[in-house]
Write a structure and sequence with these properties.
Elements lengths: L5 E4 L2 H9 L11 H5 L4 E9 L2 E12 L6 E5 L13 H13 L2 E6 L4 E6 H9 L13 E2 L1 H12 L3 E2 L13 E6 L10 H7 L2 H13 L2 E5 L4 H15 L6 H14 L4 E8 L2 E11 L2 E9 L8 H15 L4 E6 L11 H8 L4 E5 L3 E4 L2 H13 L3
Parallel strand pairs: 4-5, 13-14
Antiparallel strand pairs: 1-2, 2-3, 3-4, 5-16, 6-7, 6-15, 8-16, 9-14, 9-15, 10-11, 11-12, 12-13
Helix pairs in contact: 7-10
């Protein structure tokens, strides 16, 4: 007979030890992420079986205006055995604990894949005027584990959150990933990863090299230069940039946990910064997290050069996945988001759908008021 799972608050060190014992976990589930999201109250909790911590969650609490009730958010987590046929054994003690903490609802994003598509399938979908969304394209693979998790969550009363063009209320449901190991788990060579890219990507990497673009690892002292280019990118591409202080905190917190967890990469041409990125790695999973590029000198292809440098580093560090993060679900050739998808598809990887974000209302009246509040402020 399996011993029952119990849940308790755990120390940051216990939390780090649990993550270190796994092949990987989302960086949003590391204890260090709590320091980055300092405007949320945070807590590490762990599941125990026979006195051993076998699962963990970073919980972020967002207080409702004027009342001491909270949305409890577990981004891209928790870090548990999602293959377990009895998810209630894990989620019931978590919900009971969060309710005692004053949560009116729980939101989580199970790190479980549901479907995958090849770069060729995505490319064909964009070219086909009859295809509007990624979901219209038959996938390469449907995950049985993902289907089981979704069925169990529905049974347990969790509600899947709607996505707008593929972006959920919090984290993206669709990502683009380059596998760095083959189907047998054998590491791919640099030549093999390069060969998997489309002709334009390979040509642009070669062009950057020929033009003399130099890619180097940066340090905290280079954050201001990164941020200036990032703000320039935000103005050009019409998104709201995060402040410099956010990146300083992020680098400091994640690097304190592991010196190679977060890396700043800089691409320069004749002394001019033409592209800069932030990469994050936890175990075997490497992410491209933030990027910036100059409008001038685009022809030297600094963005392709810096991505290739990050992929090579991830390979050398034993990563099994290089994750370019979110894409929208739209494949409409007229949609402004398609350019970003096409850039990522050129790497020759796969589009990956996750289970998405799920809410469990604990106080329906407050939860409904919260949804109205979110709708008024635009989510």
């Amino acid at each position: 007979m399996t011993t029952r799972l119990t849940l308790r608050p755990i120390s940051a060190q216990e939390h780090r030890d649990l993550i270190a014992s796994r092949p990987s976990a989302s960086f949003l589930q590391t204890p260090a992420w709590a320091a980055v999201k300092s405007d949320w109250r945070s807590e590490s909790v762990g599941w125990e079986r026979d006195g051993q911590v076998v699962g963990a969650a970073l919980v972020l609490y967002r207080q409702l205006p004027k009342v001491r009730r909270y949305l409890a958010y577990v981004p891209e987590g928790p870090v548990i055995d999602w293959n377990d046929g009895d998810l209630a054994a894990w989620l019931t003690p978590l919900v009971a604990h969060l309710k005692k903490q004053g949560a009116f609802a729980v939101r989580m994003g199970p790190p479980v894949v549901t479907r995958r598509w090849t770069a060729e399938q995505v490319k064909a979908g964009i070219a086909d005027p009859a295809v509007r969304r990624l979901g219209d394209v038959p996938p390469l693979e449907r995950s049985q584990e993902g289907a089981r998790v979704i069925a169990q969550l529905h049974e347990l009363g969790w509600q899947q959150q709607g996505t707008e063009g593929g972006f959920a209320a919090g984290q993206p449901q669709f990502n683009f990933q380059v596998p760095l190991v083959d189907e047998q788990g054998v590491p791919r060579s640099e030549a093999d990863v390069l060969a998997g890219m489309n002709q334009l990507w390979r040509r642009n990497i070669k062009k950057a090299d020929k033009a003399g673009v130099e890619v180097t690892r940066g340090g905290a002292e280079d954050l201001e230069a990164f941020h200036a280019l990032y703000v320039h990118t935000a103005e050009r591409d019409h998104f709201t940039p995060r402040p410099l202080g956010y990146f300083r905190t992020m680098v400091e917190a994640l690097a304190a946990e592991d010196p190679d967890r977060i890396q700043l990469w800089l691409a320069r041409h004749e002394g001019d910064l033409v592209a800069a990125t932030i990469a994050i790695r936890v175990g075997t999973h490497a992410w491209y997290s933030y990027g910036a590029s100059s409008t001038e000198k685009r022809d030297v292809r600094g963005s392709n050069a810096v991505q290739w440098a990050m992929m090579r580093h991830a390979l050398a560090q034993g990563a099994e996945v290089y994750d370019l993060r979110g894409i929208t679900e739209t494949l409409d050739a007229d949609d402004p988001h398609v350019g970003l998808i096409q850039f990522k598809v050129g790497t020759g990887g796969q589009a990956v759908e996750h289970a998405g974000e799920w809410d469990l209302p604990l106080n329906r009246a407050i939860y409904k008021a919260f949804q109205v509040y979110l709708a008024r402020r635009g989510g």
